[in-house]
Write a structure and sequence with these properties.
Layout: H1 2-24, E1 28-32, E2 37-41, H2 44-49, E3 59-63, E4 76-79, E5 90-94, E6 102-105, E7 112-115, E8 120-123, E9 135-139, E10 150-153, E11 160-162, E12 164-168, E13 177-181, E14 195-197, E15 200-203, E16 206-210, E17 221-224, E18 227-229, E19 234-238, E20 245-248, E21 251-253, E22 264-268, E23 276-280, E24 283-286, E25 297-303, E26 312-316, E27 319-322, E28 331-337, E29 345-349, E30 352-355, E31 358-359, E32 367-374, E33 381-386, E34 389-392, E35 395-396, E36 402-408, E37 415-420, E38 423-426, E39 431-436, E40 439-441, H3 444-451, E41 459-460, E42 518-523, E43 535-542, E44 549-556, E45 562-567, E46 576-582, E47 588-589, E48 601-605, E49 619-621, E50 624-626, H4 640-651, H5 670-681
Parallel strand pairs: 3-5, 4-7, 5-8, 6-9, 7-10, 8-11, 9-12, 10-13, 11-14, 12-15, 13-16, 14-17, 15-18, 16-19, 17-20, 18-21, 19-22, 20-23, 21-24, 22-25, 23-26, 24-27, 25-28, 26-29, 27-30, 28-32, 29-33, 30-34, 31-35, 32-36, 33-37, 34-38, 36-39, 38-41, 42-48
Antiparallel strand pairs: 1-2, 1-3, 39-40, 42-45, 43-44, 43-46, 46-47, 49-50
C-alpha cells in the first residue's frame, strides 16, 4: 500500500510538471528580423539560446499570451553573439496584442542580465508599436547587492532598454539597483553606448545606476524620458568608473520615501578623469525620506565626491521642486556642488528650482535650505552659473538657521567664477535672497557690490509658477522684464523643446512669451579708432542714487559708430543714464539728469557736443566728440599702469586683437603709447554721478 501511494504521488507530480511544460511550450517565438517564424520555445532563455553563436541577420523574440515565465531560469541571461551590429540586432518584446505581460521572480542575481552582449533591444511595447510602457519586469526579492531587475554587465554595448515597467523591491538595502550598467571586470569596452528610455522604473536603492571600474569604465550611456519613482537612495546614481553620460527628459520623484539619511534625485559620484556629464530637461519633483535623524540631507542634484580632473558637468533646463517637510532634515538643497581636490568645469544654466516645506530644528548659523549651494573650491575650478531661477519658500526651524536662494560659501579667488543673470528669492524665517561667505543679503546693491564683478545683472525677484511642482511660469511672471536673460551658446531650446529667444531668453528652464523691447539708437566715437567698428557694453542705470544697474547688453558698432540697442527692462517715461564701456576707453556716462524712452524709442548721440557726456568728459576728434582712450586695465583712469602694459606689449611685438592696441591697427607700438601718454599726462579719468 505504501509503495502504491508513493507511485501515485510521483505520477501526479510528473503530470503536473508535464502540464506546466506543455502549457509553456510555444509561448515564445523566435523570428527573423522580418517577423517570419523560425522556431517556437517554452521560455525566453530557450529562444535566445536557439540563436546561433555567430549571426548575420536580425532576430526577434516575441512573448505570446500563454507565457508565464514558469520555465525560465533566473536571471534570464542574454549572452554574446558574434556578428551583432546595428543591423544584426536581437529584440525581445511582447507579441502584438499581448498587453500586460509580466516577467516576475524573486532572485538575488537579478531578473534579466545582458551579459557581454551587443545590440540587444528590450522593447516593452506589444509588437514594437505605441508610446506607452507595457511589459513588466519585476524582482520581488528584498535583499542582495546584485538584486537588480535589469542589468548590463561584463561589456554589454549598444543595447536599448525601452518602454518597460521595471519594478524592484530593494529600496533601502545596501547596493541593489533597479536598472544598472554594472561593472565590466575584464572587457575594456565597459558597459557602454547603451540607452534606457521611455521606461517606468519603480523601486530599488537607485532607479538607474552606472557602476563601472576605473580600468574599464562605462561610457556614453544615455538615460532619457523615463519616469523614475520610489527609489530609496538615488533616482539616478552616477557612480565611480562611469564616464560620459547624458541624463535628459526624466521625471524623478518619491511618493512616501524610505528611511534613508541622504536621498538625491541625481547623485554624481564618479571621480573618473576627463568625462562629460550632461543633465538636462529633467523634472525632479520631490525627494522624500521617512528618516527622522537630524543628519538627514535632501538633494535634487548632488555631487558627492565630485568629478575627476578635466571633467565637465553641464546642468541645464531642469525643474527641481523640493517641497516635502522631511521631518528634521539638516539640509535641503536643489543643486549642491561639493568640495574636491580635482579641477573640473561646472556649468549650471537655465534651471528653475523651488524649495518649500516647513523646517524642523536645524543648527543656528547653518544653511538648512538653498536652491543652489556652491561649496566646490579647488584652485583652478571653472564654475559658471547663469540664467537660473531660485525660489526658496521654506519656513521654520530654530533661531539663527539660514534659508536662502543661493549659498556661496567659498572665496572667489579659488577658481574661475562666472555668475550672472540669475534670480534669487527667499521669504521664510531666517531667509536671505543670497548668502555669500557667511553673510546674508536681502539688499541687491549690497550683494552686487560684494559679488562684483559677478552678478551685476542678477536680481532678487519672486516668481509665479503654475503650481508648487509644475514650475512653468504663469501670471505676472510672463513677460516680467526682470526675468530676461542673455543667450548661452549651444542651448537653443527650453525644457519642453520650445525655441529660446535668440536675444532675450527667459531665466529658468521655461521659455515663454517674448518680452516687449525698447530700442536705443546710439551714436558714439572712439578717440583712436576710425572706423569705429568694435564691441561695446551699453548699460542703463537708474538716474537717482545709488544709480543701480537696470540692464546691460553688448553690441557691435557700425563703421560710423552707430548701433540699435535693445532692452527688455527699460520703461517708457523713466529717466536712465546711458553708460558705455569699451575695452580700452574711459567709461562714459550720458549727460546729467538721464534720458527717457518714448513709445519704446530713444535716440542718443554722444558725438554732437561735449555736454552729451556727464562732466563733458570727451575729446573732440575730427569734428566728433569721442571717448578718451588708454584705459587698458579698465580701472577708470589713464595712468602709469596702462602705459606699462602698452610698453610691455610693444616690446614683445604683440599683434592681433589686444586691449593695448589703442588705434586698432593690429600691432602694439609707439603710436599707441603716444595716445596713452597724452591722456595720462592730462589726468584723464572717469567722470560720473
Amino acid at each position: 500500500m505504501k509503495k502504491f501511494i508513493i507511485l501515485f504521488f510521483a505520477l501526479v507530480c510528473f503530470q503536473l510538471q508535464n502540464r506546466t511544460l506543455l502549457a509553456q511550450a510555444g509561448s515564445v517565438e523566435l523570428q527573423d528580423g522580418g517577423g517570419v517564424l523560425i522556431s517556437s520555445h517554452a521560455s525566453i532563455t530557450e529562444a535566445y539560446n536557439a540563436i546561433p553563436g555567430t549571426i548575420s541577420q536580425a532576430y526577434i523574440i516575441e512573448i505570446l499570451t500563454p507565457y508565464t515565465g514558469a520555465n525560465e531560469v533566473y536571471p534570464i541571461t542574454l549572452s554574446l553573439r558574434t556578428g551583432s551590429s546595428s543591423s544584426n540586432t536581437v529584440t525581445v518584446r511582447p507579441d502584438a496584442g499581448n498587453t500586460g505581460e509580466i516577467i516576475s521572480s524573486s532572485n538575488t542575481g537579478g531578473i534579466l542580465n545582458i551579459d557581454n552582449a551587443d545590440y540587444v533591444i528590450i522593447d516593452g511595447r506589444p509588437g514594437g508599436t505605441g508610446s506607452v510602457p507595457d511589459l513588466e519586469i519585476r524582482n520581488t526579492v528584498t535583499t542582495g547587492t546584485n538584486s537588480s531587475t535589469v542589468a548590463m554587465i561584463n561589456g554589454a554595448t549598444n543595447c536599448v532598454i525601452k518602454y518597460i515597467k521595471s519594478y524592484n523591491a530593494t529600496e533601502n538595502t545596501t547596493g541593489p539597483k533597479n536598472v544598472v550598467f554594472r561593472t565590466s571586470v575584464s572587457n575594456p569596452t565597459g558597459n557602454s553606448d547603451n540607452i534606457v528610455e521611455n521606461c517606468y522604473i519603480s523601486g530599488g536603492r537607485s532607479g538607474v545606476s552606472s557602476d563601472g571600474t576605473l580600468a574599464n569604465p562605462n561610457r556614453n550611456n544615455i538615460v532619457r524620458n523615463n519616469t523614475i519613482v520610489d527609489w530609496g537612495f538615488n533616482g539616478i546614481w552616477f557612480l565611480n568608473g562611469s564616464a560620459d553620460m547624458i541624463i535628459e527628459g526624466n521625471t524623478i520623484y518619491n511618493t512616501t520615501g524610505v528611511s534613508i539619511t541622504n536621498p538625491s534625485g541625481i547623485n554624481i559620484q564618479s571621480t573618473y578623469d576627463g568625462y562629460n556629464l550632461t543633465i538636462r530637461n529633467n523634472k525632479i519633483t520631490n525627494v522624500v525620506s521617512t528618516n527622522t535623524s537630524t543628519s538627514l540631507n535632501v538633494r535634487g542634484i548632488n555631487t558627492v565626491t565630485a568629478p575627476g580632473t578635466g571633467s565637465v558637468l553641464n546642468i541645464y533646463n531642469n525643474f527641481i521642486s523640493l517641497n516635502a517637510n522631511n521631518n528634521s532634515a539638516a539640509s535641503t538643497y536643489g543643486i549642491l556642488t561639493t568640495g574636491t581636490a580635482e579641477i573640473y568645469t561646472c556649468n549650471i544654466f537655465y534651471n528653475t528650482i523651488k524649495i518649500g516645506g516647513v523646517q524642523t530644528g536645524g543648527t543656528s548659523g547653518n544653511i538648512v535650505s538653498a536652491c543652489i549651494n556652491k561649496t566646490s573650491n579647488q584652485q583652478g575650478i571653472v564654475y559658471n552659473q547663469k540664467n537660473n531661477i531660485c525660489i526658496n519658500n521654506r519656513t521654520g526651524g530654530n533661531v539663527g538657521i539660514v534659508h536662502t536662494g543661493f549659498a556661496y560659501i567659498e572665496n572667489d579667488t579659488t577658481g574661475t567664477i562666472n555668475l550672472d543673470y540669475n534670480s534669487y528669492y527667499a521669504d521664510g524665517s531666517g531667509a536671505f535672497n543670497s548668502y555669500r561667505n557667511a553673510t546674508g543679503y536681502n539688499s541687491l546693491s549690497a550683494y552686487q557690490t560684494a559679488a562684483s564683478p559677478n552678478e551685476q545683472n542678477s536680481r532678487f525677484q519672486n516668481v509665479t509658477f503654475v503650481s508648487a511642482t509644475d514650475l512653468h511660469l504663469s501670471g505676472s511672471s510672463i513677460q516680467d522684464p526682470e526675468l530676461s536673460a542673455r543667450p548661452i551658446s549651444g542651448i537653443t531650446t527650453d525644457i519642453d523643446g520650445t525655441a529660446r529667444n535668440a536675444s532675450f531668453p527667459y531665466k529658468g528652464a521655461d521659455e515663454s512669451t517674448a518680452f516687449p523691447l525698447k530700442t536705443l539708437n546710439l551714436t558714439v566715437n572712439l578717440e583712436a579708432c576710425s572706423p569705429v567698428q568694435d564691441t561695446i557694453t551699453v548699460s542703463l542705470r537708474n538716474s537717482t542714487s545709488p544709480f543701480g544697474l537696470v540692464e546691460m547688453t553688448k553690441v557691435f558698432l557700425s563703421g560710423t559708430g552707430t548701433a540699435a540697442v535693445n532692452f527688455a527692462s527699460a520703461q517708457n517715461g523713466v529717466s536712465y543714464y546711458i553708460v558705455i564701456n569699451h575695452r580700452n576707453s574711459i567709461v562714459t556716462w550720458s549727460k546729467s539728469g538721464g534720458e527717457m524712452f518714448t513709445a519704446g524709442l530713444l535716440n542718443y548721440n554722444f558725438t554732437t557736443s561735449a555736454s552729451q557726456a556727464f562732466g563733458n568728459n570727451m575729446v573732440l576728434v575730427g569734428g566728433k566728440y569721442s571717448f578718451y582712450t588708454g584705459d587698458v586695465n579698465q580701472d577708470e583712469t589713464v595712468d602709469a599702469g596702462d602705459l606699462s602694459a602698452i610698453d610691455n606689449d610693444a616690446m614683445a611685438g604683440l599683434t592681433g586683437y589686444n586691449n593695448s592696441d589703442l588705434n586698432y591697427d593690429n600691432i602694439v607700438d609707439a603710436s599707441d603709447l603716444a595716445f596713452c601718454d597724452n591722456n595720462a599726462s592730462a589726468g584723464v579719468l572717469a567722470v560720473k554721478p
